[in-house]
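Exercise 3.2. Students should predict the tertiary structure of the chain below and write it as structure tokens, then compare their answer with the key that follows.

Predict this chain's 3D structure.
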Amino acid sequence: PAATTATFNPTTVTPNGSPATTTLTLTTTARTAAAHLPGSPAPWTPRPENLLLWLGAVALCLGWLTMRRQGIGSRRYAAYLPLVLLLLSLAAITACTSGPTGTPVGTSTITVTATSGSLSHTTTVTLTVQ
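Answer key:
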């Protein structure tokens, strides 16, 4: 599955007529805190505090327009305000819409194949992530 790595130790074995073993290690990545918990709102669900932030941004924009129209304040700093608002908006949108990362919960079947010359043997391993 995604965000899972498989390693063998040792990576190669030479049987020389007797059994040889190697160890398969599956490493998973923990899910982020953004994972949706049952009964909690999804990260992208509109919330009242987000509405207040957007209303504040709109008020800031209107204040900027008024300042520009009336010539109040430093025009040098006022010119950067739209850029700052755009960057903050992009950061907020990115933070609010990013989903969980890491190994997904569930069961996966992993196929392991050992090969020596033209001879090969295959087995499966079940990985359960909770």
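Discussion points: The chain has a mean pLDDT of 78. Residues 48-70 form the longest helix (23 residues).
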